[in-house]
Amino acid sequence: MKITRRHMLLLLPAAAIAWEYVRAGTPETSPNYQLSEHWWGMLIDLPKCIGCGNCVRACQAENDVPEGYFRTWVERYHVTDYDIEDPHVDSPDGGKKGFPPSKEAGGKNFFVPKLCNHCADSPCTQVCPVGATFISPDGVVLVDKTYCLGCRYCVQACPYGCRFINPQTMTAEKCTLCYHRITKGLITACCEVCPTGARQLADLKNPHDPIHEFLKTHNVQILKPSMATHAKVFYNDLDGSVR
Amino acid sequence: MKAFKDSGHLFRLAAVFMVGGLAFLAVRALLVPRSFGQYGHYRGIAMAEMAARPVNFAGHQACEDCHSEVLEKKSRGKHVHVNCEACHGPLAKHVNDPGSVQPAKLDTAVLCVRCHEANLAKPQAFPQVASADHASGMPCDTCHQPHSPAITDGGTE
């Protein structure tokens, strides 16, 4: 059949559509890892946290976090007896080198580890103008650093202050829930090194995960529930003064 | 072909729009990354790129495969649930090449106080000491064996 100009014009749009699929190729996935079988979160058992800073150091070692920036950090709260709404919070160097002795006795003293809450309705992914940050199908909020412009929109959108701009790459950076580890069947670096089990990785889609029993039997809260972020980092025995 | 007077102008205009439209589609196909939109409004391949990153902490399973004697010792003590790399640091390189990469010797005088130095904010039930009073500068492993730290009748193991 002779291809006339008319045929050519009809074929071009069809070829353009087909070309999209050719270029997309086959999706690359870890051999035994199914995105649809997981929904990741974390449990922070606050009464077990001793503020040793192991998680902060491990996170920096595992993820090459630049000095002075933190994907996870530990805060020390001191709630005085006379002003429970206004706690004193300190976090010297993110708690990486531990904490100096508390000056004020009395009241309540405790540690609160913080990290990205991997919200199911995350404000940070909604504001990205280029689709560089997203919630993966397995429930982890990630940043595609090759696509990020560094516009800082997400940094100010996060209600938990979990994002920063990496000074070397000038792109947004945050906790990836050790995505390179959990997809290989390991637990996150912070959970691996936590000596008391205060941090526990949780797979909410796994019916055998102990998180389900824990959530049923303990007083578990998330941070800033009023923001309707549906955070997936659960804090056991969270004091009302924690922000 | 003449539908009405000067209708050629309309056909030429349509042709210009068509060429423009095709050029737009071609440029878009070149600029939009291959896997964009595979799962949502982002590059689907970005997840595989992040998952490909090598690990630094090997995980306690990898340690226990070889060092079963330490596991046995730990199982009798309070540190049974403390994973190896909590104290020994990231050792994936040692796991990949046990012969040439050796873990550094640890200083218990520095390491133990990270967790056990007394602090008001620590849970009351957690064993804490004021290291200056408790050990007067001696390294902790003079008396305590880190893998099973309780001091038994037979002294340290």
Unreliable spans of chain A are 25-29
Number of domains of chain A: 2
Q: Uncertain regions of chain B: pLDDT < 50 for 5+ in a row?
A: none
**Helix amount of chain B:** 40-55%
Q: Could you give a short account of the major beta sheet of chain B?
A: none
Radius of gyration of chain B: 33 Å
Major β-sheet profile of chain A:
4 strands, mixed
List the chains of the largest interface with their residue counts: A-B, 61 and 48 residues
| Series of H and E elements of chain A | HEHEEEHEEHEEHHEHEE
User: Got a strand count of chain B?
Assistant: 0
Strand content of chain B: under 5%
Helix content of chain A: 10-25%
Gap between N and C termini of chain B: 103 Å
CATH architecture of the largest domain in chain A: 2-Layer Sandwich
**Beta-strand content of chain A:** 15-25%
How many domains make up the coordinates of chain B? 2
The total count of helices of chain B amounts to 8
Query: Helix and strand string of chain B, N-terminal first?
Result: HHHHHHHH
Q: What's the Cα radius of gyration of chain A?
A: 22 Å
Total E-strand runs of chain A: 11
- Secondary structural class of chain B: mainly alpha
Short description:
Chain A has 243 residues and is an alpha+beta fold. Chain A has seven helices and eleven strands.
Q: What topology emerges from the helices and strands here?
A:
The complex is a heterodimer of chains A (243) and B (157).
Chain A (H helix, E strand, L loop, with lengths): L4 H20 L15 E6 L8 H10 L8 E8 L8 E3 L17 E8 L7 H5 L5 E3 L5 E3 L9 H5 L6 E2 L6 E2 L5 H4 L6 H5 L5 E5 L7 H7 L2 E2 L11 E4 L7
Parallel strand pairs in A: 1-11
Antiparallel strand pairs in A: 1-9, 2-3, 2-4, 5-6, 7-8, 10-11
Chain B lengths: L7 H24 L13 H7 L8 H7 L1 H8 L8 H5 L3 H5 L11 H9 L14 H5 L22
Helix pairs in contact in B: 3-4
